[in-house]
Amino acid sequence: MDQIADHLIDQDAVTIADDTALVEVRRVLRAHARAAGLSLVEETKLITAGSELARNILTHTTDARGRLYVEQLADSRRRGVRAIFTDDGPGIDDLDAALTDGFSTVGSMGLGLPGSRRLVDEMTITSSPGSGTTVVIVKWRR
Amino acid sequence: MSDDLIPVMRIADTLLVALQGDLDDATVIRIEEQLTHAVARTGAAGMLIDVSGLGAVDSFIARVLARVVAMIRLLGAEAAIVGIQPAVAIALVDLGVPMGHLHTALNAQQGLALLQRLRRSGA
What we know:
Strand order of the largest sheet of chain A: 1-2-3-5-4
Order of helices and strands of chain B: EEHEHEHEH
Structural class of chain A: alpha+beta
Structural class of chain B: alpha/beta
Radius of gyration of chain B: 14 Å
Oligomer: heterodimer
Largest sheet of chain B: 5 strands, mixed
CATH topology of chain A: Heat Shock Protein 90
Helix content of chain A: 25-40%
Distance between the termini of chain B: 31 Å
CATH architecture of chain B: 2-Layer Sandwich
Number of helices of chain A: 5
Shape of chain A: globular
Distance between the termini of chain A: 27 Å
Strand order of the largest sheet of chain B: 1-2-3-4-5
CATH class of chain B: Alpha Beta
CATH superfamily of chain A: Histidine kinase-like ATPase, C-terminal domain
């Protein structure tokens, strides 16, 4: 995380420990979306994706615990929001399967990861069994 | 019921409720129970659930909404979701939540007309 911490602007962090944290996750994402000047549709997509990813942490980690870091992004051409969801849960065995619509290990609809990927501009997943999962999403202002 | 979370309005034989704000999961579940009980208690022929005050609907809330509609149908009434915000609709389609089987309308007025049509065709 040091690499990410080097270029932080206005970072926020949320502990995801139970389902009441989802309201806070959505609130923080909304605030950052507005600060970055995202449109209402972009903002809604970011919040929806973030809510799903936070839910994944609650569903898949044994002690249902993770963190969200949200930060503003800016380069010479555009602004955006980056959200980092990280947990030290069991990790993902098969990333390709986890990114397939309808694939679920817990009897849900299996939309969390593939659906979130459709809602954002960039999504990267770092995971290996036993060492947790980090999902980074970016939504740019059009 | 003393622990009602949201007000239920009655227009003739149709109930109208509005969901607003950012609801946590437990509240969504309690509202689901409240709405199902309201239909059973009043014997209403239909219910309109206005979600125009919801700024985001994720897969959990969408699933609960679909479940409420299914429960109300089991009670012999019809239910429709009205007022989905355009941005929310766009996000739900991207997310891939199946909502096509639900009765939906742009607003409460069109929802009332929809319920009347459903009732006539079902009679």
